[in-house]
Amino acid sequence: MTYAMSVQNLFVSYHGNEALHDINFTIEKGKLVGIIGPNGAGKSTLLKSLLELIPKDQGVIEIFGKSLNEMRKKIAYVPQRSDMDWTFPISVIDTVLLGTYPSLGVFRRPKKKHREWAYHCLEKVGMEKFSQRQIGELSGGQQQRVFLARALAQKADLFCLDEPFVGIDITSEETIVRILKELRDEGKSVFVVHHDLSKASTYFDELILLNKELIEVGPVREVFRPEIMMKAYESQLTFMKQNEVTV
């Protein structure tokens, strides 16, 4: 079987401080995967290192059995909203159109069919009425839907989203979850950095539980158990208990 993602002996550090220690896992194709863990656990660091957006100290990463460079055009990445420049003068439709660029080749410009495809992707996320708006004029949830549309326009096989549900409205969240599940059902592989544990069991097929090292990986029913979750969150829960205020 070719795995969507295979990671061996991954180490990542910032300025000499270890952020991820000896991460090893494999994930089958066609899964919707949540990357969870306490604050500072290295969730976004893991996703970015898998895509070589930040350097790793060591480790071997394969995507669909190949190197990242071989598969780069088949990977769509949606960063955190806080990482985006929302003042950039670009319209919604042109933002989505950027998703078609990896398939165009050097010095080629998008044609009518590419613009029509971008508009279709906007329709899929319910944002077609905003196609001529400047991206910064939208709400947080609308912006996130537009960037998901850009990812859809890429026709990728692997979708990676970093905290897509932070600061968005419930309608946008439900729309995004529905589309991610549809992608999964089409055989695509989806990785999502996620912080809301209350929804993890209904959103994902499998979980990667981190706290700077891999605590557990596998189906939700196997990972999302008190004795497993406690291994990742124990230090945080202990700190909260020690600092409780009695009223």
TrEMBL record:
Presence of the UniProt keyword Transport in the record: yes
Keywords: ATP-binding, Nucleotide-binding, Transport
CDD domains associated with the record: ABC_Metallic_Cations
GO molecular function: ATP binding; ATP hydrolysis activity
Domain of life: Bacteria
Domain ABC transporter positions: 5-237
Family classification: Belongs to the ABC transporter superfamily.
Name recorded for this polypeptide: Manganese transporter
Source organism of this protein record: Peribacillus loiseleuriae
